[in-house]
Amino acid sequence: MKIVLPDSSELELPDGATGIEAARAIGPKLAEQAVLVRVNGATRDLRLPLADGESVRFLTTRDTQDPDALYVLRHSTAHLLAEAVMRLYPGVKIAIGPPIADGFYYDFEFTEPISEDDLAAIEHEIRREIEDGRVWTREELSLEDAVGRFEAESQPYKVELARDAEGTISLYTQGDFTDLCRGPHLQDTSPIKALKLTSLAGAYWRGDERNTQLTRIYGTAFYSQADLDAHLERLEQARARDHRRLGVQLDLFHFDEHSPGSPLWHPKGMVVWNALEDLRRRENARRGYLEVKTPLIYDKALWITSGHWEKFRENMFLIEEEGKTWGLKPMNCPGHMLLFGSQLRSYRDLPIRYAESSTLHRNELAGTLHGLLRVRHVTQDDSHIFGTREQIEDEIFGCLDYAAYLYDLFGMDCRFELSTRPENKLGTDEEWDFTEGALQSALERRGLAYELNEGDGAFYGPKIDLHMTDVLGRSWQMGTIQLDSQMPARFGLSYMGPDNREHTPYVVHRALLGALERFAGILIEHVGGEFPFWLAPVQARVLPVGESHRGAARTLQARLVGEGYRADVDERDETVGKRIRDAELEKIPFVLVYGDRESDVALAVRERGAGQSTVSLDELLGRFTELAAEADPSP
Ligand SMILES: [Zn+2]
Ligand SMILES: [Zn+2]
Prior knowledge:
- This protein has 635 residues and is of the alpha+beta class.
- The protein has 19 helices and 34 strands.
- The strands form nine sheets. Strands 16, 20, 21, 22, 23, 24, 25, 26 and 29 form a nine-stranded mixed β-sheet that branches. Strands 6, 7, 8, 12 and 13 form a five-stranded antiparallel β-sheet that branches.
- Strand 25 and strand 26 form a beta hairpin.
- The longest helix has 22 residues.
- The protein starts with a strand and ends in a 7-residue tail after the last helix.
- The protein binds zinc ion (ZN) (2 copies).
- The site of one zinc ion has 5 residues, from helix 3.
């Protein structure tokens, strides 16, 4: 038989040759370094046979960043973890141990609880296994043999997994440990150059809380120590930037068990919040949006008309009152439909762009709530644009331009994804050709690169999702721009066209920053709590050196406040050094130390990230003006 190599050359092999045999035929070095074979795009264990005509690519210990190569390395390390745990904790029951995005885990049922302190000893035992060296062997067996084997070993989870297995049942063995496993696995432990057990968590068997709670041990592994170090460094940075931690440190917000998923904003957090609101209002006014305000509660009949009762009821908070069922709004759309429908509309009135950032409530499951990133109390920078068919492209263009402006303002890289007609679409293919085409040409006209998600649109229309990548390389979905002709029709909306006939308008649902709570959370992490000057809750702090300087310090603060800046005075009986450090922890952009030598012509100024200098008050105000202008870079 013949297989095809990446350079398109063909390799002649005996029928039924395995991956590792093919690697050996190419060269001993490759055979030694190979960890996995990719066949027609899918991964396969090196021990399995290849078939005639297959295109083959070997992954080796040099593919240190390849997700598949990392996957096999980490999966193999998970097996080493299970071997170590079985040796150290006789009687332990083993469940599953898959690789995950940044590492792996294995679930165990221990006879006695273990703690994070025990991880070091387990990790040590894995290292000993690697030093000794382990080779993996693979065997296949029947269902009865597999069940019999794990019953004899008193491993009930494995028995259950074997009974559920589809196709061939395979076992992988290293040392004295055998696991039920589909593979693939490394040939031996030599490629595992760095590993770390990272944490411990509870996890229910099969994710079902009615089942036994198991202990999940998380870990990770790499092809080099340098890669592991870089990974741990990234984790540490992410921890230091965690918005929940910074929210406390910077006194921005907190959560209370009496209203899960709903932040309580502190005065300093409110400054940031209001700055985002001001930005939204300013740009809306510039871009021809009209601010509106619609009710928080509507009766069930409205939600039936809008379609939310059918599609979204599970996520709504409902209230029984006056013998009726009412729902707290999870979205603004229905209110804006009522507004549009409240008057006769002509094509000359269009487009109409309603904007509202009122409070929405979504009943997210308690277990999915996560700081500001997933909340029940949601405030979107929401808008609904009503327009004619001919206006769609320009309106989408306007939304994209607005989004690009906002993301640029916060120094965020934005990615756009265009989602097209799904299988359960409403409307004809001609209609979808038109609407998808309009979104596509708007993207191209604005010069934005985008990815295509075929079949991922909503059933009522195509959409563009906005994603940003933060400083740590993590990707977040932020806003969305969705085209819809269904909801206006459900509400019976129309406008009089130039032909003197009634037409149904299109509506664009769009939120650009998305949920402001979530945006604030991502922004806090993106800037690591160091808000740009225009967003900083306290922009300048004055520190009087001694008691006798307090009067002058307060005068200086009043002067800055009078100029429109947020300034305070720290008069506590602490040393100047301690007060400077506290201001640094609060990440305040400017700290002014005021003592005997200071005056309006000579101020001791520490600018965040720039060190100390002596400037006059006028120079300082000049610098403030310059920085404040960053809030509004448009011409
Ligand atoms: Zn496995
Ligand atoms: Zn909407």
